[in-house]
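Hi U.,

Before I forget, here's the chain from the pilot set. I'm dumping it here mostly so it's searchable later in email.
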Amino acid sequence: MNKVGEISFKEIKRISPSQFFSMKNCAYKSLLAEAFDKKPLLPLSPNAYFGTVLHKMLEMTAKGIIKNENDLNIEFAKQVKILEDDLRDKGFSFFVPLKIKLRNFGLKKVQLKKYLRNNLEQPIKSGKTNLYSEKWFESQDKLIGGKIDLIIETGDDIEIIDFKTGTVTHDLLDDEGEVLSDVKNEYKEQLKLYAYLYFENTNKFPTSLSLVDLAKQKFTIDFSEEECKRVFDEAKTLLKTTNGSISTRSFLAHPKEENCKYCLYRPACSFFQQKLDEADFSFNDVLGVIKNVRIFQNGNVSVFLQNGNKIMTIKNFSFEDFDELNKNISKQIRIYNVTKEAAEYVYSVTDTTMIYE
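Structure:
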């Protein structure tokens, strides 16, 4: 079984634009990530790992390294192999092969090909154009820094582009109750931080900020210099406040589904542990004392946990797990990344299920 051990907190040296929104929602998550040297306590979903491949392909297409579908096929296979080898090295071989494990694997490759064709059909801007891909920028005091996916400079026209391989927008209700689609706030603030970082380093503000998804849809973000400066100052204040909480132990966390569901440091979070102690069943994690362990003829193992007056059943552990679970009867454990079954208080394990004492 896995153990968290003693947590040694340390200051976060720098905040990145991509990290800012997450830290605003739960600064404690960022402190835990720093304490564990950004080594997750739970595995990411295979889609998250695959997203790094997609992002790399978009970057190489934008830089002109990938010029045609043959280039794309060769590079795609290469990047997938690199990722699969890395997953095996990390002990996540259950995610391999990605082609089988991911339902949208083929669809994403088709989208990449469409993106490439659309990219080739784009008219060339007049005048000299400079392209900068994955360029690092940091503030003068080095407290904020990150890589900008793509910068296009054509004379006085400066566009900052951030590639997104997932959903860019979310639905909102207006005052009349109509559903509107708008770019997620986290992406707006991320781009405004990039804009101010660019200004601090060049003494020029970009003229446009854009998000581009796999469908080659471009989402333009409205901004002003004052807004970018405000978000920039807010990020520095947040970093200072978060680091200050280490000495005072006045940690601030917001354990709720949108903050915790995909947090990879849940096993070390005392605030989240309290939610599980209270038998909060809104998460795909369970906590309880092992009351019984049963092995069935097909080799599957079920564990029965008691939490208060509730008995929970967690099914489909493998035969190899039986001895370890059985010798820990009467011990309290936490099981992360399970799925709820139709029956109440019944769960099944997944490829990413992990147990912590």
